[in-house]
Amino acid sequence: MKKDPRNRPILVLDEDPETLELIAEPLRWEGYDVRSLTCPKEANEFLNYWKPQMIIVDPDFASMDGLHYLNSLTPFLETTALLVTSSNHSPERISQCLDGGASDYICAPFKSEEFLARVRAQLRFRDAKEELIESNQRLQGLIEIDDLTGLFNMRSIFEKLEFEMERGKRFNRPVTVVMIDMDHFKGVNDGHDHLFGSYVLSEVGKIIKGSTRTVDIPARYGGDEFLIVLSEIPLAGVEQFCERLRSRIENAVFSQGKDSIKLTVSTGFCTSQVGESLAAKELVRRADMALYQAKKLGRNRVFSYKPNIDRLQEPQYVEGYDLDHSAVIDIFDRKRKTA
Q: Does 224 participate in catalysis according to the annotation?
């Protein structure tokens, strides 16, 4: 579908006012939203808040070496077309500009009809690129998001956790993994149909999502188990968060049609220590051990990892951790369900 040219912002840069007008005038005939600037400093400030779909510039703008300013525009070109106009017709200069990121090179003087056709062509290419980026983002969302709960899924959570832990090491900030497991969830599926069980998990996902910040990483870890990555929160804040979330789920009534139930969750967490060199999977394992202890002590409670509760130090358990498969869940789940 052809887009309204009035919604097409175009920035034209040239230090010569007469040349600037020769370029901008045919664009205005077509109805484009054109801004013309002759000052490099003003152009740089303008680009900080105005996002054009196309920049048209002479390669000698703001620089005697010819390509310095052109190279400085690279950060703006992800979804912005760059059109170069110049009276320099040498193959070497044309190649330099195109290799430097220009979408097209128009030799001056030019015919207005050809100039406008080239502008339209580059805007079509720009639209196609933007649509591709948006499609890739949607696809990435489908890959990373659990359909039932709307939280991140296990496929993506470890990569995100590893990134947060590296960032925590760099800035000397703690990272916490919170593990949450529904208490007696098997009874939900036994006493109701599985659609109701899916509804409950979906509602719990909403409660978790509504309880976390935009910088937190909430995920469905598998089955009726959830994982949350918290960054830059002190121990007291983590405890308050976990207790508040536990209370919200305990006080919720899950109702759908004739089915209605109240449930609780057990929660375990582990926080990395500043300066500690800890792998992401080890932080998850410790949080899972804390969760196991919370269930062992009677469920519906929050428990913080302590070294004295760690009974799974044997190498085979650590080696059994497979970040790409469900074994990472099953290793401890088999023991926990017997508690």
A: yes
b/e burial code for range 292-326 (CB count within 10 A of at least 16 → b): bbbbeeebbbbbbbeeebeebeeeeeeeebebeee
> Per-residue pLDDT tens for 13-66?
998 888 899 999 999 999 999 999 988 888 888 888 888 999 999 888 876 555
Q: Domains (ranges, CATH) in the chain? A: 5-142 (3.40.50.2300), 145-336 (3.30.70.270)
Task: Considering the candidates 60, 224, 288, 333, report the single residue annotated as catalytic.
Answer: 224
Residue in the block written with tokens 């390669």: 59
Residues of the chain with pLDDT under 70: 1-2, 63-66, 137-142, 311-339
Percentage of the chain surpassing pLDDT 90?
Answer: 49
pTM exceeds 0.70: no
Residues 6+ apart with CB under 8 A from 267: 178, 179, 180, 181, 242, 245, 246, 291, 294, 301, 302, 303
Alpha-carbon distance of 201 to 282, in angstroms, equals 26
